[in-house]
Design brief:
The chain has 253 residues and is α/β, with parallel strands linked by helices. It folds into 2 domains: 2-63 and 133-160, no CATH class; 65-131 and 178-247, no CATH class. 48% of the residues lie in helices and 11% in strands. It is built from 10 helices and 7 strands. It has helices spanning 19-29, 42-48, 51-54, 65-78, 99-115, 118-125, 134-137, 150-160, 189-206, 221-247; strands at residues 2-4, 9-12, 33-34, 57-62, 85-88, 91-94, 143-146. The strands form 2 sheets. The protein has a 5-stranded mixed sheet, covered by helices on one side. Strands 5-6 form a two-stranded antiparallel sheet. α6 (118-125) crosses α9. The longest helix has 27 residues, at 221-247. The protein starts with a strand and ends in a 6-residue tail after the last helix.
């Protein structure tokens, strides 16, 4: 999480949405200062912010789940997982002290290394409606930077804050092995059905569209209902984990 008292903004970092690149830009060029922790929730900030700070311009990032999951798969198969995961042969090295994160990454790493098939990965790990903790507070923010339009949207933020732009954004953790054509990963009916059921409600909520090649795509009301139920349960989990972690952090500017 990045704050500037000079320009009166708060940037909330959502994992795997280009937030590391934005955070570096803010800290290096636009008076940004890191507070709480990298992926702290907005509620963590709000609990201790004063009245003036609560009025700051708040923005974050969001990403098409298709692109996010493909990037996750390619990093597990070929490269690295946001600098948290590296491997040599069958040896896995995790740069994290979070045991749950280790279990999450290790399980997926082993599966991808064994099968190296995106459809199998999709059907194994994305049975339920996809969501991330953008569901907690993103709808309250002043602006959302879309990963797919990172440079232009960041420039819009700077204009809203009346800040002069200082160069282009340096991209971080780029997935070099990812194919440009996202549809090529969903090359069979089984993969497409799973993608619609898992990602459809989230995409609908945040204004993402399926490509024209998916003209027969239809999101089922049952999947919308399941997404809503699971979203509420996940919010409880995310808030609880956030609170426990926040108590152990120092909240300093």
């Amino acid at each position: 999480m990045i704050i500037s008292h000079k320009y009166k903004y708060l940037f909330v970092e959502l994992p795997r949405t280009g937030s590391s690149a934005i955070a570096d830009e803010l800290c290096n060029k636009y008076d940004g200062k890191k507070i709480i922790s990298k992926h702290a929730k907005y509620t963590d900030f709000f609990k201790n912010a004063n009245t003036k700070e609560k009025s700051y311009f708040v923005f974050s990032c969001i990403r098409n789940p298709f692109d996010r999951v493909i990037s996750e798969y390619e990093k597990l198969k070929n490269d690295r997982m946001n600098d948290q995961l590296t491997y040599s042969g069958s040896l896995l090295k995790i740069k994290t002290k979070n045991y749950l994160n280790y279990i999450y990454l290790n399980s997926r790493f082993q599966f991808v290394q064994k099968h190296k098939n995106f459809t199998k990965f999709l059907n194994r790990y994305y049975w339920f409606p996809y969501d991330d903790w953008s569901s907690l507070n993103h709808h309250e923010f002043d602006f959302l930077i879309r990963f797919e339009n990172l440079e232009n949207d960041f420039n819009k933020v700077l204009k809203r804050l009346d800040i002069s732009q200082d160069g282009k954004i340096a991209r971080i953790n780029v997935t070099t092995s990812k194919r440009d054509d996202i549809d090529a990963y969903f090359d069979n009916e089984k993969a497409r059905r799973r993608a619609v059921r898992s990602f459809g409600p989230f995409m609908e909520k945040w204004g993402y569209k399926f490509s024209e090649k998916w003209s027969n795509t239809k999101i089922l009301n049952f999947d919308r209902f399941l997404y809503g139920i699971m979203s509420e349960l996940r919010k409880i989990f995310w808030k609880y984990i956030s609170y426990r972690k926040f108590k152990k952090e120092n909240y300093e500017y």
